[in-house]
Amino acid sequence: MNYPRFVLAGTQSGVGKTTISIGVMAALKKRGFEVQPFKVGPDYIDPAFHSFVTGNASRNLDGWMLEGAVVKKLFMKNASGKDISVIEGVMGLYDGFGIEKDQGSTAHISKIIHAPVILIINGNGMSASAAAQVLGYKVFDPSVNIQGIIINNLSGEKHYELLKAAIEKYTGIPCIGYMKTNTAIQLKSRHLGLIPSVEVEDLKKKIDEIGEMVEETIDLDQLIQISNKAQSLQGETDPPKEVLKFEQVHIGVAMDKAFNFYYRDNLDLLEELGAKLVYFSPLEDEKLPEALHGLYFGGGFPEVFAEQLEKNVSMRESIKTAVDQGIPTYAECGGLMYLTEAITTLEGRRHEMVGVFEAETTMTNRLQRFGYVEVNIEKPCVISHNPVGVKGHEFHRSVISMSKDEAFAYRVEKRRNGELVNSWYCGLQKQNVLAGYAHIHFYNRKELAKDFVENCRNFMDGKGDRHGE
């Protein structure tokens, strides 16, 4: 089956991939296309922009956390029925895990799903040197199907025509457009990347402007032609048939400006297992929804909204009461921070949080952990009945200090070129709660989702705290 698609890749981070990606998505949607967005790698912020623009949930395609066959299945499943798929790359085209170009890189994903690549370069201050740069990306891995070049950060058409002539003469790859330098359309950043879409004022106006710029200087017809020439994909597209399915389990999912970092496929898998997801806001709602059998706190920016979270005392008390009653609770990164006793911001202000763990979170000026990790779940917990290993990703600027020895469920390992370079304990476990810094993709170990839903079912049936202390 043919799934019209292309990858928007960059020569490096900061070249304008996200701005151009959402502009292209907006322009295609304006033409009436049903656009399915994807993001290479473990990012949460860029997919939120994609979803806002297209109206379709963006999906992560991660070639390190997931097997190639799983990546392909998830792509086909979500691209099915859509007019065109736009896949935004991560970092530079060949940047992945360590120095391995075929472990988690944009190039790796493009080969797994046989997608043509549009390479975005920064043309500022260059002429013929742009051709040398493109040629290097072309010959580094000839199996990567680079079908077009978009040049960003140009003064105007004359500069574009100069670079276009050089690139096409020396590389044979067509240039399909450019973007003018325009600081007004730049998406602002803070300590973990772009400011999330839910916090951007006048976002629709800004996206409309970016889309109009794309329409003006990028050949959309050529992009569409390239997408339609993508190699046909064959394989199973139906949702995986799970052995267990748990009806009527209600899992509360924290979703607002403070908590919105979730892999959409994780949520889908919980639903496929029979869970009904009930969304709530720790910022705005007075208490948890009624009749919940589990809680899921994703990552986000609780430190940015710490004062508002602190002031919502009734919600914090509602969560603490539910936890004390044994409700299965799983939290990642920002969710972990929220479940500690307090968060101290970079400004030195201390704000009380839920207080499940006798620990506190302190923000720091530098990254504490960043990158892919191997999470060894060493003892039974809310998402695992048995010890198991799972791949994950960490990215945070906070540290946890504990006033007593809390129980750990994880031993986390960081490797480079197959060699262990660091390891530490994480995964705080208390009552029927598990909270850790690592973000885990359930499709790496689907039994984790099954075990979580089963624990929620046990709680609903009054079978007690299966893995509590």
TrEMBL record:
CobB/CobQ-like glutamine amidotransferase domain sequence ranges: 251-446
Gene3D superfamilies the record matches: 3.40.50.880, P-loop containing nucleotide triphosphate hydrolases (3.40.50.300)
Active site as annotated: C333 (nucleophile)
Enzyme class: ligase
Pfam families referenced in this protein's UniProt entry, alphabetically: CbiA, GATase_3
Pathways involved: Cofactor biosynthesis; adenosylcobalamin biosynthesis; cob(II)yrinate a,c-diamide from sirohydrochlorin (anaerobic route): step 10/10
Site (Increases nucleophilicity of active site Cys): H439
TM spans (from-to): none
GO molecular function, one term: ATP binding
Residues annotated as domain CobQ/CobB/MinD/ParA nucleotide binding: 7-191
Signal peptide extent: none
Reactions listed under catalytic activity: cob(II)yrinate + 2 L-glutamine + 2 ATP + 2 H2O = cob(II)yrinate a,c diamide + 2 L-glutamate + 2 ADP + 2 phosphate + 2 H(+)
Any single biological process term in GO: cobalamin biosynthetic process
Domain observations: Comprises of two domains. The C-terminal domain contains the binding site for glutamine and catalyzes the hydrolysis of this substrate to glutamate and ammonia. The N-terminal domain is anticipated to bind ATP and cobyrinate and catalyzes the ultimate synthesis of the diamide product. The ammonia produced via the glutaminase domain is probably translocated to the adjacent domain via a molecular tunnel, where it reacts with an activated intermediate.
PANTHER family xrefs: COBYRINATE A,C-DIAMIDE SYNTHASE (PTHR43873)
Family (UniProt): Belongs to the CobB/CbiA family.
Additional information: The a and c carboxylates of cobyrinate are activated for nucleophilic attack via formation of a phosphorylated intermediate by ATP. CbiA catalyzes first the amidation of the c-carboxylate, and then that of the a-carboxylate.
General function of this protein: Catalyzes the ATP-dependent amidation of the two carboxylate groups at positions a and c of cobyrinate, using either L-glutamine or ammonia as the nitrogen source.
NCBIfam families, A to Z: cobB, PRK01077.1
Protein name: Cobyrinate a,c-diamide synthase
Source organism of the structure: Geosporobacter subterraneus DSM 17957
Underlying gene: cbiA
